[in-house]
Design brief:
Blueprint: H1 2-8, H2 11-26, H3 31-56, H4 64-81, H5 86-105, H6 114-133, H7 135-138, H8 161-184, H9 186-196, H10 198-203, H11 208-234, H12 244-257, H13 263-272, H14 275-278, H15 283-300, H16 304-315, H17 320-327
Helix pairs in contact: 1-8, 2-3, 2-8, 3-8, 3-11, 3-12, 3-13, 4-5, 4-6, 4-11, 5-11, 8-9, 9-11, 12-13, 12-16, 13-16
Length: 330
């Protein structure tokens, strides 16, 4: 908790919070753009959890969206059928999704690299089929609509509009700060050791399976929180919202921005998440633009957009102030 607090009060995290809140406030007059920013905040939360797994632990969890879907459906069931408060249902559903995620992924956590990715792809496929065919719980491909928005904390008024946007920004910021604090802890350094050389990490006494499980649990919890917020914010969920393509998109956002960094996934989500919405009138063009952005960055900046930006800043003598913000210890 002390590490979390000391991380949160640094200059860069506080500047990040200000930018997130400012983005929500700036587009509050246009509900379409506000919705796009809100969805982007959810993706920032998702990419933070994915970054812990793929950027710091070296896993490629293609079951990520399926875990988010478990939490989304559980939250809807608890709030609409059992009349739970959204703010109680969300952590409970995320915890359930994280436990299910660990149980599903436990056999594959002893694998690494391509084999782990392939195993998680199979699990994601099974989860997606479960969402489709368990109609009594998920309403199948039709999905569940007219999901009511959550009430404001300590109030019976529904949380809508700008207030919900600001809540999403706060969740995204807390999520990023949580991952940032983890990377500064001994646990975070052990994860990096596992990512770099699993055999060497085991040789120096690191319990690789245990730390992988804990990392997977935390990342899955992030997925679950994002899934619950998505259900409450959008008001509609279906199996297509939590399929393999969604997992791949979240992973691409992390790789696009710069995995293994704090700012990279934020940049990746901020650039890629809005593209399908801003180009929705050009159905054949949006996939081309999305793919072209990913390919250009991967070819020209193998370390991601943030990695390329850091390299430019280090080589540019005129970017002292930017270097201080991005690279400084403030």
């Amino acid at each position: 908790m002390k590490t979390l607090f000391t991380t949160a009060i640094r200059v860069r995290p506080l500047l990040m919070l200000a930018l997130m809140l400012a983005a929500s406030l700036a587009v509050s007059g246009d509900r379409f753009l506000a919705f796009v920013v809100g969805i982007t905040m959810i993706h920032i939360l998702w990419t933070a959890g994915m970054n812990l797994l793929t950027g710091y632990t070296g896993l490629v969890p293609l079951v990520y969206a399926g875990i988010a879907g478990v939490s989304a459906y559980a939250t809807v069931a608890l709030t609409m059928q059992h009349r739970w408060s959204f703010w109680l249902a969300t952590p409970a559903s995320a915890l359930l999704a994280a436990l299910i995620g660990v149980l599903l992924g436990l056999p594959s956590l002893r694998l690494k690299g391509f084999y782990f990715a392939l195993s998680s792809l199979v699990i994601q496929t099974v989860v997606s089929l479960t969402f489709v065919y368990f109609v009594g719980f998920t309403n199948g491909d039709t999905g569940i609509n007219q999901i009511p928005p959550p009430d404001m904390p300590l109030s019976s008024h529904p949380l809508r509009g700008l207030a919900f946007d600001l809540v999403l920004a706060a969740f995204a910021w807390v999520g990023v700060i949580g991952i940032w604090a983890i990377t500064l802890m001994p646990f975070g350094r052990r994860l990096v050791a596992i990512r770099e050389d699993e055999l060497l990490a085991r040789a120096i006494g690191i319990d690789v399976v245990r730390d992988k499980m804990l990392s997977f649990f935390i990342g899955s919890f992030y997925a679950g929180i994002g899934g619950s917020l998505y259900a409450g914010y959008v008001g509609f969920i279906s199996p297509r919202n939590f399929d393999l393509l969604t997992s791949l998109n979240i992973w691409l956002m992390v790789a696009f921005g710069g995995r293994g960094t704090i700012m990279g996934p934020i940049i990746g989500a901020a650039v890629l998440a809005p593209v399908p919405f801003l180009l929705q009138q050009y159905a054949s063009l949006k996939d081309v633009v999305y793919g072209a952005l990913v390919i250009v960055v991967m070819v020209l900046m193998p370390m991601g957009l943030y990695g390329g930006l850091l390299r430019h800043i280090r080589l540019s003598p005129g970017a002292v102030w930017l270097r201080t913000i991005l690279l400084g210890r403030a």
